[in-house]
Specification:
Layout lengths: L14 E7 L3 H13 L5 E7 L17 E7 L3 H10 L12 E6 L11 H10 L4 E3 L5 H18 L8 H13 L1
Parallel strand pairs: 1-2, 1-3, 3-4, 4-5
């Protein structure tokens, strides 16, 4: 199975591609719709996958992926295991600002099945930001969509003077404070 490569294809002009990887298709779809409703000055494509690797037979048709958001449902241990297994199929250079972990369901801490330390460790080990959100609540869903859209804009190279690596480093440093 082939690894997901960040720079194996040329970027498209004024466009960006987001890949949402997670076991809850309903939440992925809701988040994708929220992102598409946001105002933006570039064309956006959102691809949904339950896990990696992606099917190799359509690889020649797949555009360059600018940002991968791994979605972890806090109430599902399977969700975390699925993300951990998928990480093996991501090229190391993706972790230079083109990956984030999106932890959903944080409003339901009573039903938490996943250790928060395990999620934080994922962020540290893979040098990637961890975003906590509640996609069941409209306001949080919009805020999460806006944050992902801004991260996508930066990782696709549409913000002059800001690289994906420097932005990711800044986000990680802010989270550590």
């Amino acid at each position: 199975m082939a690894e997901l490569q960040p720079y194996d294809k040329l970027p498209a002009l004024s466009s960006a591609v987001l890949l949402l990887v997670g076991s809850d298709g309903g939440l992925q779809q809701r988040l994708a719709e929220a992102i598409l409703r946001e105002k933006k000055n570039f064309k956006i494509s959102i691809h949904l996958a339950t896990s990696l690797p992606l099917p190799p037979e359509r690889d020649h048709l797949r555009p360059r992926i600018d940002l991968v958001a791994f979605m972890i449902d806090i109430k599902s241990k399977y969700s975390l295991k699925n993300v951990e297994a998928s990480l093996a199929y991501v090229d190391d250079s993706f972790f230079l600002g083109k990956v984030c972990f999106l932890v959903t369901g944080v409003g339901r801490v009573n039903y938490c099945s996943v250790e928060m330390n395990a999620i934080r460790n994922l962020g540290e080990v893979y040098c990637s930001p961890v975003l906590f959100c509640e996609l069941e609540v409209e306001g949080s869903q919009v805020a999460t969509a806006q944050r992902l859209l801004r991260m996508l804009e930066i990782s696709a190279g549409h913000v002059p003077g800001v690289s994906a690596l420097s932005f990711s480093s800044l986000m990680r440093n802010c989270a550590d404070d």
